[in-house]
């Protein structure tokens, strides 16, 4: 889970977040497998915003937790915090927005129909986390990748983490030694499947790189990476 600089990689940050969210939803009995087996639905990621304060180094101890920070008729918000045990400070904050889709109609389901009750307890949201609107700029094509079997999740869609893997692989290892990531935001659109080809487009300014991943003429993911 470490990069060539022996720190937790940006990809691993998202993997930890996804693991913590999945475990929390399992404890609340609203996880993806429960939604599929009991409600004929699936949870999908809509948006994810991550603030990176400091990436932990190899063997550094940390504490990870997720909690529900809000929910509405159709949306569920889950915040995640990675905390340094040695330095008693946050390493990253993240906010994930999810919704449930009906497996037969592919339409958004009300959260109450997949186990989210009106009285589900919520904790105070982590500060300074919000979703932004992506700028409309001309994007330069970078490369095309193909979705393979190991990129899929249990619903046979491309796993959310894999889109970030495709994006991070457009950089060199040297980039992550010379620059430190400060933030990630991902907006998920149309899903992709095994065999689909995904075109990766990019636009950069002084501090951020913007990406758009397009498959079959439709945007699957919009993402930006903010650098310190």
Compact summary:
The chain has helices at residues 10-27, 32-39, 160-168, 173-178, and strands at residues 41-52, 62-71, 76-84, 89-102, 108-109, 140-146, 181-188, 197-204, 208-215, 218-227.
Describe the structure.
The chain has 228 residues and is of the alpha+beta class. The protein contains four helices and ten strands; from the N terminus they run ααββββββααββββ. The chain has helices at 10-27, 32-39, 160-168, 173-178, and strands spanning 41-52, 62-71, 76-84, 89-102, 108-109, 140-146, 181-188, 197-204, 208-215, 218-227. Helix 1 (10-27) runs antiparallel to helix 3 (160-168). The longest helix is centred in the N-terminal third of the chain and has 18 residues, at 10-27. The two termini are 21 Å apart.
